[in-house]
Amino acid sequence: AMVRANSARALAAAGHATPRLVLQLRDTELVVGLAAAESLACFGVDAAPFVAQAVPLFDALRPEVLSVLLGAFQSFVGKADDVLIETLRVTVRQAEVSSLLIFDHLGAAGVPVLTKALGSDSGLVRTNAIHACNRLVNAGVAVDLEAVEAATHDAIAEVRETAGQVCALLFRRAKPQLIEFPPIEIDGFDREVLSFETLEKVKKRLELNRTLDALKDGRPAVRANAARALAVLEHGTPLLALSLRDADSDVVLAAAESLAKLGDHATPFLAGTAAVLQSIPAEARNTLLRSLVALAGRHDEVLIEALRVPTEFAEGGILLVFQTLGEKAVPILTRAIDDASVLIRLNGIYGFKKLVEANVPIDPEVIRRKTADPIGDVRSTAERLYGLLITPKRTQQLREAKSFPLEDFDSKVLDPETLEAAKLKLDAGMLAEALRDGRSAVRVNSARALGILAHQNPNAVHELAVLLRDEEEDVQLAAAWSLGRIAGEPAVVVPRLLQAMNGALGALRGVALDAILAFGDSALPLLRDALDNTDEFVFSTLIPVARRRDDKLAATFLEVLKDRKEPQRARANAASLLETIEATDDPEVFSAIERFRRARRPALRPGDSPPPERRAPSVAEPDPMPMPDFDVLPIEEAALNKAKASFDIALLERMLMDGRAVVRLNAASALGLLGSKANGAVPALAVRVRDSNPAVAIAAAKALAKLAYYPEHVVPAMVNALRDAHRDVYGVLLDSIEAFGGVAAERLTLEIEKYPHRAFAVVRPVVNRMPKAFVAPLIDLLNSKKLKAQERAAELLLEIGPEAKKARDPLIACFYVKDGGLRVTAVNAIARIGDKDQKVISALRELQEKEPSKAVQYAVRRALIALGQDPEPLNAAPSESDE
Which of 41, 81, 585, 638 sits most deeply, having the most CB atoms within 10 A of its CB? Predict the structure, then answer.
């Protein structure tokens, strides 16, 4: 031990830094670990790369060694800030026992580094940086308030929440700090809020630096007067924007009035103030709102920049400004939706939605252009808004019955043969216009007729693409069928069809798949682009397409995998898809996947062992088979039952990973017969429900149903397998999930709350299979704090219908929430349940009287009709000029 310790010290004396010193930190002898830590500290910045490697080892070091090592980081500040920031690029759990300890030790000296880290491109770095700031503030260390305030608008929820906590701590001022010299010797400056006129009279005697210091005083009156004095001095400062978060309402009002009075002097700081509109008192909010509205036409770029926040902040902030502007907001939002920033484009679309709700006229063509946006969220939001814009046209009958080419064209759905026989009477222009008619039969017949004509009219193709999101399933099916027949405008249509596949199950999914295949090779570039998407989207859409296509699509995936210029996510999805469609039999494909995955493995850290080599497709060292022909052909259940007493469960579990499908099939079947003894193999069986071989997936699903163990892991795995399940596997998976009963319903409801978008589509068929089991969990989900989860719960209760009578009162409670979409869904669900109790009727009529939204009013009317009641006239009925 003494030799090792002296050797470590000798390296420091010789000025020779080496990563081997990092390994010595974990030496079993304390004297050696201390010597290594002291030597690394002696090197200072020269040892920065090696010391950074020691950060992941912090939780394994002795306290004495760690204390010495933390001192080494003191010399990095200002000289190796990048190294300190890089230590934050770990998970939050790892950071708590490693990099956050460094900044705890650095204290105030580390604040400039954390300020830089809050501006990093890495979400992990920003998350850990704000946690470090939170720890410092709790320890009484001052941090950069402006940087923390900016972090309250971060795209990552955890960063925003922690930044909000830090801001609250900084503004709490539990122990007021009194300024020694006020900005001016004037009676009442520290006791009451003075008027602007009073401060204007003594303007020449005000000192700017002291006024700025007074904003940090512990007395509310001093802070409010300092804010007003800055307006009198015509000095704009971001500190006024920060004062809008003050705990005292007088200070908030003074800051808002000062920003309004400063005019152009405050313009650079106003963009960041929109985010607090929802949280400040009404008088201050109205004052600030007027200031922001006044920017329109003079500083449009400030209003556009204010849209660069997460949508949940924009909803109660900057979007209120655009709603107040009305028609004046249209040119500003038109510029915003063409911005390079995804957040600005997305919030610009939501801004247009606010204007539509306020009955401001919007040109649908402006929104239709964004339905081809490369970003899925922007595209889908634009499509929904475009549907809203053309909905008013659907409320009328665009044509008289006699103007249609066929009898009953406007009253019932005609079959394709009837339309084919009348082909010569069909007019493409009239049919494209009729796609917007309010009667679903007209829309279905028009869509089918356009498909029969196969007329590649760009306007008709765009309208058909929009109908993929129609509220009527028959219309969606007709639109998808026609788009496949027309096979025009692939750049517009193929992405929409993929979106339709992703959100649908059953008939629409199959028709959309056939339509994509109809585009042939012209769809290949678009399918290639779709690889750069979430793995859930890719597996839900591209796997079915790949299984029905020729080898050209596999070759396209292989090109993406080999091209290093392609995004990493696209290459990773290409590798997974090639494996799933069993293209790895080709040596070129197998080696390409191996090279890609080898390149993505992280570099080994000191003390790490190399990862195990990937096993070959079949077992490297064959295990003895449990019974004859186990690896040759599927064995019947009766034969397995006779031999089950001799089965080795660990061996069967290993065989689930065998490269031969027949071995995996027999192993899964055998484990299902062993009862509770095989509970330990449940996680391995859950993986096999997504096996590329349908027979293996079926055997695994049946085995899990028999074991009925570990539902919190098994049920979500089986539900996720529904996304891309083979048609033979689909029903077996539903049967297996149903075997778990109410436990499955509770577990899947939790999944919906966690992932409202991702889980909804795959949970829906399970709800249809066992509706009664879901009623109680969905009622609980209606009380969730997540709006999207509440919406999904209401939608599923709508699908359940009359069996969801117990949800009546919770759904009525949803009539009074802020979100219009949730109110509409709740009303539709009440109508579908069909409860004609007087309490329901009274609640609907009360909602109709008070509801400002036309969409909700229409839903209420439909509900009253469905319940056998006379609907009252709509509020604000259209006048003759409107008609």
Answer: 41
